[in-house]
TrEMBL record, chain A:
It is found in: Membrane. The lineage of its organism: Bacteria, Bacillati, Actinomycetota, Actinomycetes, Streptosporangiales. It is a multi-pass membrane protein. One of its GO terms (cellular component) is plasma membrane. It comes from Actinomadura litoris. The keyword Coiled coil does not apply. Pfam families: FTSW_RODA_SPOVE. InterPro entries: FtsW/RodA. One of its GO terms (molecular function) is lipid-linked peptidoglycan transporter activity. This is FtsW/RodA/SpoVE family cell cycle protein. The chain crosses the membrane at residues 20-39, 51-68, 80-98, 126-144, 164-184, 204-221, 242-259, 265-282, 289-309, 417-435, 447-471, 483-502.
Automatic annotation (TrEMBL), chain B:
GO terms for cellular component: plasma membrane. Residues 161-487 form the Penicillin-binding protein transpeptidase domain. Residues 54-134 form the Penicillin binding protein A dimerisation domain. One of its GO terms (biological process) is cell wall organization. This is Penicillin-binding protein A.
């Protein structure tokens, strides 16, 4: 029996699906423009001026991207671009809605000299990063234009990356290390995952994610035979030789170590999941997935024991029982949680003393670990407020949740679009991931298969970790919500990710080379 | 080695992750949404509270409490209370937090109750806010006003007074008045910071007067001789006495201290021996103290529980009255348990020592007597109607308990009549009511708590009442006329 990939390829239409892509893109644009219009109508009572700037800008960009895709990757999967544009547009509309500077009432009040709530949502910045992101998408498509001639000048295809496996692995490490280098590293919101580049702060982890996929793919594709066939059998598990598994474990431990030092548990979890899944794809060894899970459990256990990793403990405790931590809770040695919120006497005592962070000081006196579940709880309250159909864009109060425009944008959308809206968003993500997986199956080259599979899975896993976190399915760890969260690094990295998938899907779906003329008995040999 | 199979498995695993997320989102936004919206920590519900009008509260066809538009952003709606201080013991206040009926019926008034949201499920589904329901109280507003004015007139300056009238057949509370009271208008949402300050002031009152604690349902007093009705009822059940049993009304020496227990007078029935009815009518302390000693404190305590002593009587869900007590033992300031001794038992029998009762509790005692021993559970809300006038709730009378037999009740009924016709309350003979007087000492330098507890009309009782005022003098002359005036209004057709 032929493989599933061969079966799919046998049934592929080898058709250009550009018309479908175009129609879907128009739908994505209508969705985005309606979202902007609704924000304006609901919040300010008229269609916002921003509609032309933001909506118009996005329309021009998206259609630009479409034409580049239609020219350079005509056989590409028709869904990837429109789905990404829709997500990006909805995210932009939500950030526009949360950015009070775009509200007319707010401008009038500011002009009158009233004191206003400060908000950190930055719609113009996000629009700019969308420009950059889609620009990168276009550039990437153009640069990776010809996989048939990988040696053509200025052509860097996904396949080319295989040649630089170790360099790319090194690059991933350097990117991850950058934030802890004094001088360029910057700590924002308690995690040291940023570097300052002039006026911008960049999260190199977002890019390291892509490089790590390439490294794992390149390495595993060479070693997978050796790893899965040669090895010692211990009980039900067969272990590969140290020299095969060694480098990958070194890289992996290194990454996780760096991430734990940066207190960026979300990314650590993401990389871990990526590693295990790619190892599985490459070797088909379920037992190794088990070993991986065991390693994770050991890692988490060790983390809870280390004194400077106390917050891991707490993340888990908050996840199980967030209520006592609301507005400040203190986890004592005994495992008991003592509230130190502003209503408690001990908080008031330190407040009266003029402590900068009274809850923290109070907890120090009690000898416990301070933490606060207000973010998570407020995010859940936003979801509860939204209910089934949501309050409608511009009609809820998503700004009550801290970080409503970045980590918690999914909850903000849940409040205003409701369960219905969130189900649609999750379906869109699931579709992107599944189209990516289909690309992986249809791809001919083992490296590209691993690459596409890894990239798709890492996107899905990232959505799972952050959305699961803000909906209290799993403990909350900070990650960006792909395409929705405010932030340039994430947008850029994810647009590159989509460009790679688009390029690979084009290669997988285009017809195999045909004989130019009947050459009789001569056999055409495809090298791929 | 082909990688398609593992990729497909990973793809399926990816789908499972998304199914997990979808299930969780459905769980949170579908089934948890209500809990999250009403979570105490959720500040949204408080800002939301003032954005829509609450239902009205009315009594006797008169709207007492309504929401008013403020034409401001926050709060959009205020709350206005007609004759606020008069009705506050029943309505309570609302300023985000709420008390009494405003609290007990918060979800109906605010439009968040399931009975409304289920009826208006489509509105709920599309996110339209259901409007709050309107409540109708069982209160007789005219009688309530009379009660308030009379209490105000008869209570000593700086002291307290309370009155309760209940319909003995249903338990519907007709009057629940308190002096002093507070004006909920002063702390309604529209008053802003000033209201918050005022509320703290009211709440922080340290003297004997705590305006937020009403003296009809939420405050207890020593019932004094009015408690003899309970002692008699328990005696009839456990000691096999009846209204014509001859009892000793002469001197009683307290067993522990060896000191005599005084009667208010030693003439008439209290001269040495008399039938129970006579001793009751003239309120001879010694007979009832003796009866309590014969019963023992535990039996007196258990008997009183049948009337509602010992637990908080629930008027409405989330609206309990204060607990009335006949304690078997008390705890002193240091937490030590002190049992009620023999002397204490004797004094408990005449409603002194540590016996305490709310006016509501004493009205329930009278109701049992007037209703063949049956006590109906007291309640204050008759009906709740949605904005479209459809009925969401209609109170149905519930039995609270059978405190004594019908025969015992009718004997006590006669005994109460005797109080007015030949006993301590002869001054009330023209008032068409019967009852038991009470004058309880509250300690050195503290005014008496003066009671009149009974029923009306005199012949065919329909309503039970309890009135207490604090001040010098006795119950018959200081609480009796208040009860007479209130009952005159209640019985007016």
């Amino acid at each position: 029996m032929s493989s599933i990939g061969a079966q799919i390829r046998a049934h592929l239409p080898y058709q250009r699906r550009n018309a479908a892509s175009f129609a879907l893109l128009i739908f994505a644009m209508v969705l985005t423009l309606s979202a902007f219009a609704e924000v304006g109508l609901a919040r300010d009572g008229y269609i916002p001026k921003g509609l032309f700037l933001y909506g118009g800008g996005l329309v021009v960009l998206a259609f630009g991207a479409y034409f580049v895709q239609a020219k350079f990757a005509p056989y590409a999967d028709p869904l990837l671009l429109p789905l990404s544009v829709a997500l990006n547009g909805i995210g932009l509309a939500m950030i526009y809605r949360l950015d009070l500077d775009t509200s007319e009432d707010h401008r009038v009040a500011a002009a009158a000299g009233k004191k206003l709530l400060k908000d950190a949502a930055d719609a113009p910045g996000q629009l700019m990063w969308t420009f950059v992101g889609i620009g990168l998408f276009v550039t990437a498509i153009v640069i990776m234009r010809d996989t048939d001639k990988p040696d053509a000048p200025l052509s860097f295809t996904p396949k080319t990356a295989q040649r630089y496996t170790y360099l790319i692995g090194l690059g991933a490490i350097i990117l991850l290390l950058l934030p802890i280098v004094p001088g360029i590293g910057a700590e924002i919101n308690g995690a040291r995952v940023w570097i300052a580049l002039g006026p911008f702060s960049v999260q190199p982890g977002e890019f390291a994610k892509l490089l790590l996929v390439v490294f794992f793919a390149g390495y595993l594709v060479n070693k997978r035979q050796a790893m899965s066939l040669i090895g010692k059998k211990i009980g039900p598990f067969s272990l590969p030789r140290a020299r095969d598994l060694g480098p990958i474990l070194v890289i992996w431990f290194f990454c996780l170590g760096v991430l734990f030092m940066q207190k960026d548990l979300g990314t650590a979890l993401l990389f871990f999941g990526l590693f295990v899944s790619m190892l599985y794809i490459a070797t088909q060894r379920l037992s190794w997935v088990m070993i991986g899970m065991g390693l994770l459990a050991v890692g988490v256990f060790v983390a809870t024991l280390l004194p400077f990793m106390g917050h891991v403990n707490q993340r888990i405790d908050i996840w199980q029982n967030p209520k006592p931590y609301f507005d400040g809770g203190c986890l004592l040695e005994s495992g008991k949680v003592v509230p130190v919120n502003p209503d408690t006497d001990i908080f008031k005592k330190y407040k009266a003393k003029g402590s900068v962070s009274p809850g923290f000081s109070a907890c120090a006196e009690l000898g416990g670990e301070y933490s606060d579940s207000a973010q998570l709880m407020k995010g859940l309250f936003a979801l509860g407020q939204g209910g089934v159909l949501g309050t409608g864009l511009g009609q809820g109060e998503p700004w009550r949740t801290p970080l409503s425009f970045s980590d918690f944008i999914f909850d903000s959308l849940g409040e205003e679009l409701g369960l219905t809206g969130l189900m649609v968003l999750l379906l869109v993500y699931a579709l992107i991931v599944q189209r990516g997986m289909k690309t992986a199956v249809a791809a001919r080259d083992p490296f590209l298969k691993l690459f596409a599979g890894g990239v798709s899975f890492v996107l899905g896993l990232q959505v799972f970790v952050i959305v699961g976190g803000v909906t209290r399915l799993i403990p909350l760890t900070g990650l960006t919500t792909p395409f929705l969260s405010q932030g340039g690094s994430s947008l850029m990295a994810n647009w590159i990710l989509i460009a790679i998938l688009v390029r690979m899907s084009h290669d997988a779906r285009k017809p195999a080379p045909q004989a130019i003329q009947d050459e009789g008995m001569t056999q055409i040999v495809s090298t791929r | 080695m082909n990688m398609d199979k593992p990729i497909r498995r990973v793809a399926i695993f990816g789908l499972l992750l998304f199914f997990g997320l979808m299930a969780q989102v459905n769980y949170v936004q579908g089934s948890q949404a209500d809990n999250l919206r009403t979570d105490a920590r959720n500040s949204r519900q408080y800002s939301d509270l003032f954005n829509s009008p609450r239902g009205t509260i009315s009594a006797g066809g008169e709207v007492l409490v309504s929401s008013t538009e403020t034409h401001k952003d926050n709060p959009k709606y205020g709350r206005s209370y007609k004759d606020g201080p008069v009705f506050a013991p029943v309505t309570g206040y609302f300023n985000g937090n709420a008390t009494q009926v405003e609290r007990a019926y918060n979800s109906l008034l605010g439009g968040k109750d399931k009975r409304i949201t289920q009826q208006r499920w489509f509105d709920t589904f599309i996110g339209k806010k259901a409007e709050g329901a309107n409540l109708e109280l069982t209160i007789n507003p005219r009688a309530q006003r009379v009660a308030y004015e009379k209490l105000k007139g008869q209570t000593q300056e700086g002291r307290r007074g309370g009155a309760v009238v209940i319909d003995v057949r249903t338990g519907a509370v007709q009057v629940a008045a308190s002096w002093p009271s507070f004006d909920p208008n002063e702390i309604a949402p529209q008053t802003g910071d000033k209201g918050v300050k005022r509320l703290n002031e009211l709440d922080g009152a340290t003297g004997v007067i705590k305006p937020l604690v009403d003296n009809a349902l939420s405050q207890t007093f020593p019932p004094g001789s009015s408690f003899k009705a309970v002692t008699s009822a328990v005696g009839m059940q456990d000691l096999n006495v009846n209204s014509s049993t001859t009892v000793n009304t002469g001197q009683l020496i307290l067993p522990e201290s060896g000191r005599p227990l005084p009667n208010s007078h030693d003439s008439g029935s209290c001269a040495g021996s008399a039938p129970l009815k006579g001793a009751f009518a003239e309120s001879c302390n010694t007979s009832f103290a003796k009866m309590a000693l014969d019963l023992g404190i535990q039996q007196l305590h258990d008997g009183a529980e049948k009337f509602g002593f010992g637990k908080r009587v629930n008027l409405e869900p989330d609206f309990p009255a204060a607990k009335s007590e006949v304690p078997v033992s008390v705890q002193d300031a240091s937490g030590k348990t002190i049992p009620t001794g023999k002397d204490g038992t004797a004094r408990s029998g005449i409603g002194q020592e540590n016996v305490r009762a709310t006016p509501l509790q004493m009205a329930m005692v009278a109701a049992a007597i007037a209703n063949k021993g049956k006590i109906m559970n007291p309640y204050v809300v008759q009906k709740a109607r949605a904005k479209d006038q459809s009925e969401l709730y209609n109170a149905s009378p519930k039995l609270f308990g059978q405190a004594m037999t019908g025969d015992q009740a009718s004997q006590l009924e006669d005994m109460m009549r005797a109080v007015v016709s030949e006993g301590t309350a002869k001054n009330l003979q023209s008032a068409n009511i019967a009852g038991k007087t009470g004058t309880a000492e509250q300690g050195q330098g503290i005014p008496n708590s003066r009671w009149f507890v009974g029923f009306g009309p005199f012949d065919n009782p329909r309503y039970a009442f309890a009135v207490i005022t604090e001040g010098p003098g006795d119950g018959a002359t200081n609480a009796g006329p208040v009860a007479a005036a209130i009952m005159a209004q209640v019985l007016k057709k």
